Structure formats: structure tokens, C-alpha cells
Amino acid sequence: MSKERRNHTAIIVTHSRVFVLIAVRVGDITKFEQALSTHSSRFLTDATYTLILRLRHNVIKTALRTISLAYSRIKLKDVSLKLKLDSEEDAEYVVAKAIRDGVIEARLDRSGGWMVSKEVNDIYSTSEPQEAFHQRISFCLKLHNESLEAMRFPLNQHSKELASAEAARERERELASEILTGDDNDGDDDDLGDAF
């Protein structure tokens, strides 16, 4: 197979999978089924048909998440129509599983046949964002202060170094004067020891 032929085949395979990807991300079951039926021969030759069929659950979850955000309360019959499910019982099962898995925040009203979405609290009405922002700002200020402190030249460090240098010079003078006075007094080398 030539390189051009392989590139063309790769483009066709990618093109067919893009439609499935878009349908999964958007949660559009109609587009998913359309892409599946249009490109089923390609998926069968690639041996990915069963894998792509399993993505239908992800499409349903995404669509259900969109429905729960859009409607505060919706009949299970309407959910089954939107999700292209066979019956209300299937919709009830799918919704119950999504609630249990944490995909959506809702509850089932079985007596009325409703899916009731929980009210989404406005996160900005609480003090949580303010506390998180305060924590980040405190960290940045602490980091800034530590950086400034690390870059600062130590105060009076030079005077300590001058004092220690002066003391070292003084010791050298004393040693030099002792050596000179020691040479003048003795004259013999008896105190050098037996080694010399």
C-alpha cells in the first residue's frame, strides 16, 4: 500500500470517527445514530463497531446531564423521547442509574413520573470563593515577602566582618611581636626540640 493510499485511508477513518466524537461530546443521540449508520461499514472493517456501540451510554449520560441542567422538572416520558429510549421504564432506569453514579443531581418522583433536578446553588452567594481567593492572595503575599527577605543584604554584616578582620590583624601583630621578642631574648635553639 502506497504512502498516499495510507494517508487517504487514515483521513477517511478519522473523518468517520469525528462525527461520533462530536455526537458523544454534545450528547446528541440522533447525530450519534446517524454517524453510526452512515459509517458502520468502516467501523466493521476497523473492528471498532462494538466499541463505538458502547459509547452510546456516554452519549445518553451527556444528554441526560444537559436535560437536567435545562429543566428543573421534566416528565420521564419526555426524557425517554429526548433520549430515544423505548419506554418510560427505560428512562426511569437510566435516570436512576445516572443519579446513583453521580452524573446528575436530581431525584425521581415515581408517583408523578417526574425527574426533578436539584436546585443549583449560586456558588458566588456563599463565602467560599472569597475564602479561596483570600487563601491564594495570602500565599502570594507570603511568597513575595520571603523573596524580598531572601534578596535583602544582611544589615550590619559588613561591620561584623570588619571587626573580625581587625581582630585577626591584631592577633597577627601580637604573634609577630612575640616572635620578634622571643628571638631577641633567647638566642639559642634549645626550645625547638630534639628533632633539629
Automatic annotation (TrEMBL):
UniProt GO MF annotations: enzyme regulator activity
- Residue ranges of every copy of the PCI domain listed in the record: 1-122
Q: Which SMART domains match?
A: PINT
GO cellular component, as recorded = proteasome regulatory particle, lid subcomplex
Q: Where is the composition biased (Acidic residues)?
A: 181-196
Task: Tell me which domain of life the UniProt entry assigns to the organism this sequence originates from.
Answer: Eukaryota
A Pfam family name for this chain?
Rpn3_C
Mind listing the UniProt keywords for this protein, alphabetically? Proteasome
Stored InterPro entries: CSN3, PCI_dom, PSMD3_C, WH_DNA-bd_sf
Start and end residues of each stretch annotated as Disordered: 173-196
Q: Name one GO biological process term.
A: ubiquitin-dependent protein catabolic process
Query: What family classification does the UniProt entry report for this protein?
Result: Belongs to the proteasome subunit S3 family.
Q: What is this protein called?
A: 26S proteasome regulatory subunit RPN3
**Species per Swiss-Prot/TrEMBL record:** Puccinia graminis f. sp. tritici
